[in-house]
Amino acid sequence: MKRGLCTLIFCLVLGLFTMARDVFTFNDGWQFKKGPFPGDIMKAVGVWEGIWEEVTLPHTWNARDMQVKANNFYQGVGYYRKTYIFPAEWHEKRLYFRFEGVGACCEVYVNGRLVGTHRGAYSAFVVEIQEEVKFGESNEIIVKVDNSMRLDVIPVNHNLFGVYGGIYRPVSLIVTERYNIAVTDHASPGVYITQKNISQNSADICVQVKLDNVTFQSVPVVLETAIYDQVGKQVGVQQHAFELSPQGIQKRECLFRIKRPHLWHGRKNPYLYRVVCRLYRDNELVDEVIQPLGIRKYEIVAGKGFYLNGEKYPMYGVTRHQDWWGVGSALTNVQHDIDLDMIMDIGATTVRFAHYQQSDYVYSRCDSLGLIIWAEIPFVNRVTGMEWENAHSQLRELIRQSFNHPSIYVWGLHNEVYHPHSYTSSLTRSLHDLAKTEDPDRFTVSVNGYGYMEHPVNMNADIQGMNRYFGWYEKKIEDIDSWIEGLEKEYPTQRLMLTEYGADANLKHQTEFVGESLNWTKEFYPETFQTKTHEYQWGVIAKHPYIIASYLWNMFDFACPMWERGGVAARNMKGLVTFDRTIKKDAYFWYKANWTDSPVVYLTQRRNFDRESRETKVTVYSNVGIPSVYLNGKKLEHVRMGYTDVHYIFEEVILVKGENILYAEVMGVDGQKYLDEIKWYYNGEKRRIVDNKENKTEHFGF
């Protein structure tokens, strides 16, 4: 109750009771209680009246249990409650709660009355509440959340990643007039920006605005739509006066032609305009929505590559799961920024945000950073035959909520789902049709774990993605060559992307002796095998423009709550960075050296310091020139080039017993010296046990 009064005073002091929309954070002052709850109603009352935990949103109840032991976490019901005083002055307003993400299904109550439900952990949703509010009095808000797996809600299980329970993204309270730019259009901004005929000379921009009126009378309004450049100069404006009907959501369109537009050009120049839609009545501002506009044109040419604004653009891709060690999915914007900083640092130009809709904040940051991104729904791993409606619902939400982000180039429809083939193909075709109806101008993609184009669920989207883990789940590392060459020969006109590849790496597991395959069913997951996989396979990918984009799996280690592999429970360790974001693995620097102009001189195997062999090899990544490497002060000879032009291998290196100091240096063309140093120890010959058994059966996912 005190928090409600404080909020009222704060609003009065700032003069926020205007005609325009107000948006307040609604994350403080919550209480939480986790189940399970007894079925007997009398016992349930006793639990309900017991001790509640004070929490601040974002919050998840699975921050630890989903990350530390396989198949031993709470999935079920949890309750959140909060009391709040809505000012009496708001009694003529419209009030909404906007939840950015609740895992996974929820019911929202105000003063004991249901005001809305939602099914799906990753998309936002809005509930309108004013009819149940007691203005000027204390109100109780209850949110029932359930992250139990359900056959009718995607993802239908926790097998590939965990659905963290809770209100794990922020909540907002939105206050508007009785007529407004639509808030309840699947939690979209109510504004849709499309662009056509993009060139250096001009761009045609269409802005569609959805408007809502619950006054029971037509209202005379003026809709103003304006476009501003990055310094705030208005480059176009239109005003339309009309009677806003109370009978259903109304649409209005404004068309603009921008001459000599400043194009959004990825990382090179992520230039953003602003589209501002304002609703007036009697010359007074009633509502306002601001959206980004990045003017750009995406094209894909089969066999040649990806084009941005008519120029071929490199698609250096990573994938990202959103969870952190000890935090789960309840991230702050600071933590999102840390992830994006590393993605930028490594030189990625494109990100596959897998396998679900991620924070709108992340998408907005990608707009301003120039990252070209793939957004998808969590239709993964398994088909039940009961998820048809929910898959469509989540795709519609994803598209409408994310429509205006210029960084998004493709909508992902599914990942590694198969039997029954006929049903899955029909569902994918229907999802593709929905995406094209909602957004005709972007691509769609579906992803298969099999490596052949003829699979029954393929070819139902604009782009065919394939996940291939050569050397890890199947065959040998080098078999990626024949796979790509075979597809190039047989299907030269198909748009193909390599949508996952890589290998796990437990940093406590190290060895000098790795082969062309590794038995992933055993517990030894050496970092050196992951490094070898990425070195070889990126070297191949870089030579084949037929692979329009490639996405390494994964940027960060993440939780797999059903897994017990590689010596760490509930963990997928294919990341280039550890789960806690503190250690960058060797493969991180491999890609940074290949993908960026930032100076890199890096000696690999720094964690493999307990050497097994007196005679060994030394590998250096350098994108500033040929490195000079010294062992205990003596310069090494016998250097050869590896798989790319930043890959240097020194052979026939002889260690001394005890401590060995390796030192690499390069004098850059800028006159600056770049260097790196590591220490190895050799205390006699030994060999760690590595199971190099090759799995000759094709892997297709889990």
Report on the structure:
- By secondary structure, this protein is α+β, with helices and mostly antiparallel strands.
- The protein is 17% helix and 36% strand.
- It has ten helices and 42 strands.
- Strands 24-25-26-27-28-29-30-31 form an eight-stranded parallel beta barrel. A six-stranded antiparallel sheet has the order 3-2-4-9-6-7.
- α4 (333-346) packs parallel to α5 and α9 (527-541) packs parallel to α10 (586-595).
- The two termini are 49 Å apart.
Keywords:
alpha+beta, globular, single chain, disordered N terminus, eight-stranded parallel barrel, 702 residues, 17% helix
Rounded to the nearest angstrom, the radius of gyration is: 28 Å
Spatial shape: globular
Separation of the first and last Cα atoms: 49 Å
Determine the mean pLDDT. 95
What fraction of the residues are assigned to beta strands by DSSP?
35-45%
Given the structure, what is the number of helices?
10
Structural category is: alpha+beta
- Biggest pleated-sheet summary: 8 strands, parallel, barrel
Helix content: 10-25%
Spatial ordering of strands, largest sheet: 24-25-26-27-28-29-30-31
- Based on DSSP secondary structure assignment, what is the total number of beta strands? 42
Low-confidence runs? 1-18
Summary, kept brief:
The chain is built from ten helices and 42 strands.
Break the fold down into its secondary structure elements and pairings.
Blueprint: H1 2-14, E1 22-25, E2 30-34, H2 41-48, E3 53-55, H3 65-68, E4 77-85, E5 94-99, E6 105-110, E7 113-119, E8 125-128, E9 138-146, E10 171-176, E11 179-181, E12 191-196, E13 202-213, E14 219-228, E15 234-244, E16 250-259, E17 264-265, E18 269-270, E19 273-281, E20 284-293, E21 298-301, E22 305-308, E23 311-312, E24 316-320, H4 333-346, E25 350-353, H5 360-369, E26 372-376, H6 388-402, E27 408-415, H7 421-438, E28 443-448, E29 463-467, H8 480-490, E30 496-500, H9 527-541, E31 547-552, E32 558-565, E33 568-572, H10 586-595, E34 601-603, E35 610-611, E36 615-622, E37 628-631, E38 634-635, E39 639-641, E40 647-654, E41 658-667, E42 673-682
Parallel strand pairs: 24-25, 24-31, 25-26, 26-27, 27-28, 28-29, 29-30, 30-31, 35-42
Antiparallel strand pairs: 1-10, 2-3, 2-4, 4-9, 5-8, 5-10, 6-7, 6-9, 11-13, 12-13, 13-16, 14-15, 14-19, 17-18, 19-20, 21-22, 22-23, 32-33, 34-36, 36-40, 37-38, 37-41, 39-40, 41-42
Helix pairs in contact: 4-5, 6-7, 9-10
